[in-house]
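Anyone up for a design puzzle?
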């Protein structure tokens, strides 16, 4: 219809009508593009709101799956460090405490469940990270992904250079399994021959190597990942206006 009118106007040399028809066509195209852009932007905002809600659920799941072991692994570094100080005569006591014994005896364990944040992975795989308008959140999520990869690498690498001390030195460390009613799980109770450990150079070498590997694992793998998970959670809570502070009973 428009093409026919333009053809007629050109044939009649009605240049005003020609220009007017072209203006109408161009305006229609521009308006069409603008409406499409508005609809796309509106859909992006809907997708972003849905993404943040799903992301928060993923964060809660990641914390639930890792919290029990995460706290133990972080605390263990302090106990290993204290135990090494005891074994090398740099503390005010010459016998390992229960906590130090347990930490030294289990210093070969690095495993922890560090789940992916599925909502972000799906968004990234779809090439739609730009849906997230908050630059801080985007950077935090990329940082989480990088720290998670680093943690998994450290678990693998450091786990290959440590010694299973109870297995290698059963005369110095004994392990008894028991069911912990309070925690609802099977635990291992270690007993350490501190005097024998201090007198055994081979054990001291192996324990030192474990301590060094565990220190690197926590400082460069576990703690950065743990801190990044907390950072992402805090920021998402801020965007959603949520607070997880416990209320006093």
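Challenge accepted. My sequence:
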């Amino acid at each position: 219809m428009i093409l026919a009118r333009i053809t007629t106007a050109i044939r009649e040399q009605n240049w005003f009508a020609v220009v007017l028809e072209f203006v109408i066509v161009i305006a229609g195209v521009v308006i069409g593009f603008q409406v499409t852009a508005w609809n796309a932007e509106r859909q992006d905002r809907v997708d972003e709101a849905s993404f943040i809600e799903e992301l928060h659920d993923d964060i809660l799941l990641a914390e639930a799956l890792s919290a029990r072991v995460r706290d133990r692994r972080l605390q263990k570094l302090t106990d290993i460090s204290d135990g090494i100080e005891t074994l090398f005569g740099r503390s005010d006591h010459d016998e390992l405490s229960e906590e130090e014994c347990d930490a030294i005896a289990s210093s070969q364990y690095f495993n922890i469940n560090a789940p992916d944040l599925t909502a972000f992975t799906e968004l990234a795989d779809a090439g739609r990270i730009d849906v997230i308008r908050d630059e801080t959140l985007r950077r935090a999520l990329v940082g989480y992904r990088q720290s998670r990869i680093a943690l998994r690498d450290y678990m693998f690498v450091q786990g290959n250079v440590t010694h299973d001390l109870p297995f290698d030195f059963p005369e110095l460390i004994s392990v008894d399994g028991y069911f912990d009613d309070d925690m609802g799980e099977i635990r291992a109770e270690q007993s350490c021959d501190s005097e024998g450990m201090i007198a055994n150079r081979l054990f001291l070498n192996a324990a030192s190597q474990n301590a060094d590997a565990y220190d690197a694992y926590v400082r460069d793998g576990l703690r950065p990942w743990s801190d990044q998970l907390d950072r992402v959670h805090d920021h998402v809570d801020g965007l959603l206006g949520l607070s997880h502070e416990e209320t006093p009973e």
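A detail worth pointing out: Helices lie at 2-11, 15-87, 98-105, 118-125, 135-159, 165-168, 194-199, 201-240.
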